Amino acid sequence: MTAAAALPTWNPLSLWYSDGWTVTKRNLIKIKRSPDMLVFAVIQPIMFVLLFSQVYAGAISVQGTDYVQFLMAGIFAQTVVFGSTFSGSAMAQDLKEGIIDRFRSLPMSSSAVLIGRTNSDLVLNTISMVIMMLTGLLVGWRVNSSVSEFFAGVGLLLLFSYSFSWVMALLGMSVKTPEVINNASFLILFPLTFISNAFVPSDTLPTPLRVFAEWNPVSSLVQAARELFGNEGTAPVPDIWTMQNPILTVLIGITVMLVLFVPLCIRKFASISSR
Amino acid sequence: MNIIEAAGLTKVYRSKSGPVHALAGLDLSVPRGTVKALLGPNGAGKTTVVKMLTTLIRPDAGTAHVDGIDVVTDPKGVRRVIGVSGQYAAVDENLTGFENLEMVGRLYHLGGAESRRRAQELIDLFELTAAGNRPVKGFSGGMRRRIDLAGALVINPKVLFLDEPTTGLDPRSRIALWAVIKRLVADGTTVLLTTQYLEEADQLSDDIVVIDDGRVIAEGTSDQLKAQIGGHRLEVALVESGDGSAAREILARYGAGEPMVTSDGRGLEVAVIDGPRALQQVLAALGAADIRLHDAGMRRPTLDDVFLKLTGHKADLAADKAADAELEKAK
């Protein structure tokens, strides 16, 4: 049998990489084996694209383009925002089940659990994204931009989702039960994604909601995706810096989230324990 | 040489009713190659001690070393030499038994091939071969504990921490798990075990530390502790409460301490050293005095008896108080 003293010493970087990958793999196996998560990642995006494109397309008119073109960026943004909440509920669940204590008693890299969590959720969100795009193409959505702009758009959405996962992971480590995350995301993220330009042009909203929608960061993300996919139509963009420069706004947002929440998460993780 | 050495361990949780001392300056030392049991009711501070020594929480005051490594300044160093198995089996439900153990091996940095080899070895050792490739979700409570314990043994740890290893298990699984732990102990692994059951401490450990309210209240071998509270408890139930004082005198004569009388005056109980002999003598004396009985018998001492003797209060009172503290802590 292996003697404890014979444990190999690895250099910190390969240790960090290997541990992060081990946890990512564990999370992916979990996702594969829990049907509810696959439904969340696969069926829900299909449903949203079909429902919105078939139900609202006839009723909502958008200047310079048709509703399906306008809609898709909104659904992408909504899906990546909601997809990130999974990082929070999964952290809370791991904490509840005691597996976090197991991880914390092992000589692994202190950020590996968080890296593994956010990585596997990025994989899940990427799968959702691909499925949504294929469904979108089926109902008539088209990309009217260059290949590089298209990939920049996909990258921006996924990067936003990744950095928002860190925010949700911190929340997940701070609440008592996983249900809190689900309820909070319902109460906060639904208004945040619906009072935006995701599903309707924001100039159709009553004034207080319109102002909220124009300053809403989700609107910037949607606007950025629309521009990069060439789906923006000819409607005037609100004369606000964040809406005039949506890509830059989203990049700033991503940077702020990562710079702030990665260290906060690692610090929090070092002090949490289940029970 | 002591492989675990802790002094003055303190942990205070703030609560609405003021600070709660989960640990109030606890000292502990465990010699290499021995098994020590921390015995105490729910919330006495047992789990807090284990969490500190396994680097999960930091002490507010005091120092602790495991294998000479400081738990506060070098937690990763400590984690490289310990194995931990907890009260709530810390295994991943969706992973198979094998996958759980392989993952733990990789996180100890044994490498892929060695992790898989060791995982299979442990699956066989713990007689989980048939279930090893099924997700843990479908395992029984006893099987989950065995996988969890196997997880603590992926490296041959210098110190094995077992936090209430059999709490919540049925008697058969408990005895099976005891057999596994005894085998490990026979191999010379140092074990720190926490338990609520005197019998478990008795079965598995060389030395017992009784803790209550975050303090050590007694320490010694199982025999020494039992001698303190008497080997057995002898109980009689009278038909007539009027016989109470006469019966009490007889029990005092053959017992090892003051007899206790229930509030209705009919039930009497006393600690005795040689149970069967004392029972014969007491029954003979009661018969001679023409005292009629509903019931008579003897039983092994429980944790409650140890507590009553050592602290003057029942173990469950301490448990309630501590459970409240836990609740506050969670808030």
UniProtKB/TrEMBL annotation, chain A:
<keyword id="KW-0813">Transport</keyword>
<feature type="transmembrane region" description="Helical">
    <location>
        <begin position="180"/>
        <end position="200"/>
    </location>
</feature>
<dbReference type="InterPro" id="IPR000412">
    <property type="entry name" value="ABC_2_transport"/>
</dbReference>
<feature type="transmembrane region" description="Helical">
    <location>
        <begin position="67"/>
        <end position="86"/>
    </location>
</feature>
<dbReference type="InterPro" id="IPR013525">
    <property type="entry name" value="ABC2_TM"/>
</dbReference>
<feature type="transmembrane region" description="Helical">
    <location>
        <begin position="122"/>
        <end position="144"/>
    </location>
</feature>
<dbReference type="Pfam" id="PF01061">
    <property type="entry name" value="ABC2_membrane"/>
</dbReference>
<feature type="domain" description="ABC transmembrane type-2">
    <location>
        <begin position="36"/>
        <end position="272"/>
    </location>
</feature>
<keyword id="KW-0046">Antibiotic resistance</keyword>
<keyword id="KW-1133">Transmembrane helix</keyword>
<keyword id="KW-0472">Membrane</keyword>
<keyword id="KW-1003">Cell membrane</keyword>
<dbReference type="InterPro" id="IPR051784">
    <property type="entry name" value="Nod_factor_ABC_transporter"/>
</dbReference>
<feature type="transmembrane region" description="Helical">
    <location>
        <begin position="38"/>
        <end position="61"/>
    </location>
</feature>
<feature type="transmembrane region" description="Helical">
    <location>
        <begin position="247"/>
        <end position="266"/>
    </location>
</feature>
<protein>
    <recommendedName>
        <fullName>Transport permease protein</fullName>
    </recommendedName>
</protein>
<dbReference type="InterPro" id="IPR047817">
    <property type="entry name" value="ABC2_TM_bact-type"/>
</dbReference>
<comment type="similarity">
    <text>Belongs to the ABC-2 integral membrane protein family.</text>
</comment>
<feature type="transmembrane region" description="Helical">
    <location>
        <begin position="150"/>
        <end position="173"/>
    </location>
</feature>
<keyword id="KW-0812">Transmembrane</keyword>
Automatic annotation (TrEMBL), chain B:
<keyword id="KW-1278">Translocase</keyword>
<dbReference type="InterPro" id="IPR003593">
    <property type="entry name" value="AAA+_ATPase"/>
</dbReference>
<dbReference type="InterPro" id="IPR050763">
    <property type="entry name" value="ABC_transporter_ATP-binding"/>
</dbReference>
<protein>
    <submittedName>
        <fullName>ATP-binding cassette domain-containing protein</fullName>
    </submittedName>
</protein>
<dbReference type="InterPro" id="IPR017871">
    <property type="entry name" value="ABC_transporter-like_CS"/>
</dbReference>
<keyword id="KW-1003">Cell membrane</keyword>
<keyword id="KW-0046">Antibiotic resistance</keyword>
<dbReference type="InterPro" id="IPR005894">
    <property type="entry name" value="DrrA"/>
</dbReference>
<dbReference type="InterPro" id="IPR003439">
    <property type="entry name" value="ABC_transporter-like_ATP-bd"/>
</dbReference>
<dbReference type="InterPro" id="IPR027417">
    <property type="entry name" value="P-loop_NTPase"/>
</dbReference>
<comment type="similarity">
    <text>Belongs to the ABC transporter superfamily. Drug exporter-1 (DrugE1) (TC 3.A.1.105) family.</text>
</comment>
<dbReference type="InterPro" id="IPR025302">
    <property type="entry name" value="DrrA1/2-like_C"/>
</dbReference>
<dbReference type="Pfam" id="PF13732">
    <property type="entry name" value="DrrA1-3_C"/>
</dbReference>
<dbReference type="Pfam" id="PF00005">
    <property type="entry name" value="ABC_tran"/>
</dbReference>
<feature type="domain" description="ABC transporter">
    <location>
        <begin position="4"/>
        <end position="238"/>
    </location>
</feature>
<keyword id="KW-0472">Membrane</keyword>
<keyword id="KW-0067">ATP-binding</keyword>
<keyword id="KW-0547">Nucleotide-binding</keyword>
<dbReference type="GO" id="GO:0005524">
    <property type="term" value="F:ATP binding"/>
</dbReference>
<keyword id="KW-0813">Transport</keyword>
